[in-house]
Each structure stands twice: as structure tokens, then as C-alpha cells.
Amino acid sequence: MKFGIFYEHQLPRPWGEGDEQRIYQEALDQVELADRLGIDYAWEVEHHFLEEYSHSSAPEVFLAACSQRTKRIRLGHGIVLMPPNYNHPARIAERIAALDLVSNGRVEFGTGESAALMELGGFGVPFDEKRAMWTETVEQVLNMMVMNPYPGFAGTYFSMPTRNVVPKPAQKPHPPVWVACSNRETIKMAARLGIGALTFAFVSPEEAKLWVDDYYRIFKEECVPIGHAVNPNVAMVTGFSCHEDEAEARRRGEDGFQFFGYALAHHYIFGEHKPGRTDIWANFERVRGSLPPAGADRGIGTPDQLRAHLRGFEAAGVDQVTFIQQAGKNRHAHICEAMELFAAKVMPEFHAREAARQQAKAEELAPHVAAAMARKRAMAPLADADIPTFVALGRKIAEEGKATEQQKANQQRWAKAAEATLKAGG
User: Fold this and answer.
1) Against a cut of 0.85, is the pTM above it?
2) What digits encode the pLDDT tens for the residues 110-130?
3) 79, CA 20 to 30 Å: which among 54, 115, 338, 420?
């Protein structure tokens, strides 16, 4: 089994001068440490306007910074918001490819829609159309990364003409694709489309087994890839705090995990929010005593307790467990100490079994992957004769008789230069 760390850049109130800068710099230090320790993935969300819960609105900037401070850790968008009101599909394709190039091919392309009205309303994304937006844009972004040129598209939610979207990613045909899953139905959709399930539901290993079994059964029987490659993987999240003393592990990590769940529920389920004024941390403190405790069954405990907890996920067939460590008011020093202890006393056992597990899994899935790829109906490329030619703006203006005298003079100068180049064989 592999392991990841997960970032929302949580910042509970009250806020002090420089606090946002501090949490970003601490997160960069943590990712650099995780890379040295051998942790496999660093995931970064995209959220907008979700105060205290997530101050991560530009994940591509953070992940690019991580790429220059690390060597091997995989850099995951967990996730990119795909509806075009958030991000134009061509801009997503360009950013993912550029990040893949600067990281030397270490990008994981997680995708999603959001279900928070603060985000959806802020960008004018209709709630009942966001899944259709996601489906349309994910497929076309992947086509943009692969096709030369991209033939163009006239869809329900976005349209664009023929363009060659550059740069292309280092990983071919494109980076591994994931989708955020908060329920069992979305994990089934991920399997049908041949993409990884980045599962943000806090389930037990016993329930995780049901989700994993669903995923691989459907992948084997029904998968029609949305992309040009498949990524059959299931990742589950859990809390994280590791210390030799169980009570100290809970003292350091329980509040953060509880606040993570409370702030998420505030923005997504029950809250009333006045932008810039609502104090989620103060509300959390009022109800903290009534919240369910978080211990070893949530990844918070001693190395032995975490080992037992994670063995349950491994036995369930989970491919990756991702830790929510930067949550609430968890302290940077404690997070780093916990990662070091985990890497020394827990992780080696699971990594030792990973190569054999991966080989057996690849052999088992090989015929199903081949069958899935055979079912895909790829977007047809344009024949060379059908690729349109586009006239530069200056020439267009001149030909339409709308040019100023200066524009006409410039056009003549460039036309002469072009003619000279052709005569010289350039």
C-alpha cells in the first residue's frame, strides 16, 4: 500500500498577520520532509471562499513550488474543479501539462465538481448541472493533452475552435486521472470511466472493502475509459497523528480531525455563513464536547495502533491511504514529528509488500485493461486537409480595410520580410 499527505491549508480563526503565509511555508516544508521520508503522494485541493476550512484556491502554484523542493513524491491535484465557470478546459490542460514538465512527470490529475454553495454560487455553477459539466470537460481536457491539433469542440457547456493546446505533458498519453468520491455511487462511476477513486469519505476498513470490491468488479466488467489510459486505483483518507504515547497522539491530533469534519459540515451540510464574519472555530469550540472522539480508528494513535488500522485498509484492497494531517490548529512541529515516526516504524512494512502487490494486480487486471481500451471510442483526429488556417489579426484588419496608416505600413514591412524569407529558402 502507498501513502499520501493531504492539504486544505486550514486556518481557523482568529487570524493574525502573516498566518496564511505561515501555513503555506509550513506545508512546503512538510512536503519536502515527506519526499525525503519516502511518502508517495502529496495532494492539494482547490477550493474557493471556504474560510477556515480551506485557503487553497490556487493549487497549481503550491504544487509547482513543491515540484522544485522535491525529487520523487507524486504531486496530486486533489482536485481541480472542472466546471468551465471555475476553469476553462484549455487552461486546465495547459496547467496540468506545464506542472508535469516542471516536476519531471510526477503529476496526478485529480478532478471534481464541488458541492459547496459558497463556491458554486460564487462562480455561477448550477448545482443540478455540475456533474454533466464535469463529464464534458474531463473528456475534452484529456483530448487536448493528447491530440495534435485538438479538433475543436461544440458542447453544451463550452466550445472552442481547432487549436493545438501546448505544452503537452511529460507523462504519455497524459497523467493518471482521478475523481473525488464522497459516496459509493461516485466510486462506481470512477470504475466505469477507468479513473482512480480519490475517496473523501471517512469509512472503516470493513466498509472500504465493499467500496473497493464494487470498484474493481465494475472496472473489470463495464469500464469504458474517459481518457486515453486507465488508472485503476482506490485511495482512502484517514486522520493522522502518531506518537509513542497514545494520549499524546490524541492531544496533538484529535481536535484537528474533529475541526476538519465540523468545518466541512459547516460549509457543505448545515452551516449559515456570513463572508468575512462567521467564526467557525468559535462555533466548533462550543460543541466540541459533543463530537465523537477520534482515536486509532481514525489514524490517531501509537505506531502499533496505526499499523493495525492500516492493515485493515490493506486487507480491503485499498491502494493508497492519504493522511489528513494539516487540520484545525495542529502544530507544524507535531506534524513533522509524526511523519518521521510513521516513516520509521510503520511505513516500511507496507512498502516492503508493495512491489509484489503491484505486480500481481497488474497481471490480474491486464486482460480487463485491454478489453476496456478496446471499448473506448476516441475523438477522431482531423485530416491535414481539414485543419483550418487562421489569419493573423494584423492581416485580417488590413484585408478588411480597417487598418490605420501605421498598421498598413507595418503590414507591408512584414509582408516584405516574409517574401524575403521565402526567397532565401527559409
Assistant:
1) yes
2) 999 999 999 999 999 999 999
3) 338
